[in-house]
Amino acid sequence: MRPLHPIDVIFLSLEKRQQPMHVGGLFLFKIPDDAPATYIQDLVQDIRKSKSIPLPPFNNRMNGLFWDEDQEFDLDHHFRHIALPHPGRIRELLIYISQEHATLLDRAKPLWTCSIIEGIENNRFAMYFKIHHAMVDGVASMRLMEKSFAKDPNIRSIVPPWCIDSRKEKVKKPNLIRRLSQTTSNIKQQVTATPAVFSELYHAVQERRSNPDYVSSFQAPASILNQRVTASRRFAAQSFEFERFRRIAKALDMTLNDIVLAVCSTALREYLMSLDSLPSKPLIAMVPTSIRNDDSDLSNRITMILANLATHVADPIERAKIISRSVKNSKMRFQRMTSSQILSYSAFVYAAAGLNILSGMMPKHQAFNLVISNVAGPREPLYWNGAKLEALYPASVVFDGQALNITLTSYLDKLEVGIVACRKALPKVQNLLVLLEQAIQCYEDSLGLNQNIPVHTE
Fold this sequence. Notes:
It is a single chain. It is globular, with a radius of gyration of 22 Å. The strands form three sheets. A six-stranded mixed sheet has the order 5-6-7-2-13-12, sandwiched between helices. Strands 8-15-14-11-9-10 form a six-stranded mixed sheet, with helices on both faces. Strands 1-4-3 form a three-stranded antiparallel sheet, with no helix packed on it. Helix 7 (242-252) crosses helix 8. It has two domains: 2-146, 2-Layer Sandwich (Chloramphenicol Acetyltransferase); 195-378 and 393-446, Chloramphenicol Acetyltransferase (2-Layer Sandwich). It starts with a strand and ends in a 12-residue tail after the last helix. Helix 4 links the parallel strand 5 and strand 6 (112-120). By secondary structure, the protein is α+β, with helices and mostly antiparallel strands. The protein contains twelve helices and 15 strands.
């Protein structure tokens, strides 16, 4: 039994029918050239016959304020096998993911599902995995999925993401004394963090008065992005060459994350201008930042940075500079605190924003306009039962007042982009993929960088 973290509770509290709070991943595989015609059917059968024990958090279900082991775990509830209609284009695949990403998970069971999707053009298949954000954050979910894949294409064993590797010993359940000790330790960490948190809050108030790069809560302008959402979702995905971002970052002497935000900001500016809906004040992005300082892959260990996207500035270079200063200012604040202090500080500062999202009391006042998340992924090619992982696209959450989410992750030499939006609130959001490419080209042209690297589109 593991206690829910305060951030886990927030994600669970925010969930309602039109506002599912799970994250997902679309994994696209190439079937091996020497595979038999029954490759997918064999893979599915092997998974269903697997006798491996589910690995936490995949065997955990809610029990009050704790994660408890599901004693009646039923794989058929979580695992599905479907086939796309001919001709199995990526378009049909993304339509299916859009529909599946809009459905709620059953809270009476462990909060995850997995679908194997066959019939995709060019001899490919996919796996779509979704898991509640209360169970894992982006970094944790990436670590969990990587454990299932191999770095050797010749390894043909199938290890489902939810199963313990047979070479590992079963972890012993903690007894009651150990559970109480862990809970007491968690409470003690929160109490001891309080003085430092209030000190930092006082420092933040002083900084807000004198630092033009300081971004405060409820500074975000009203925009078309900040509408109430319906249950309908649109998922769009694309791959970009990572080297293009590296070259721009080097030319501007900025971090890769700064450039990712600058490219997203430029695309958003053009998208909103096309709808005649660009606010006169700059959009504010909430950027989840991991404070995980170990190799764990459970629960949430994230905080939030508010970044000024400078969408009111026409010059792309100046826009990037403002973004960079804004992010750097937020990171310097967290460098003065421990992980426990950061979590407590974030819970206090963003409590009002969370209450506003939960209650909808002030729909015209938002702490941020959208979420832009960038999660580091594997740098080596991965395989599953001999099938090469060609691409992995993240799919995150949108909620009332936040109708758009852009999540990115790296894989090999690519930056994989997954866009999730409320289909009713934002028209033709897939156009953002084209605008992202144009934004990259804009920075390359402005900096005199020769662009001869191909772009992979899905």
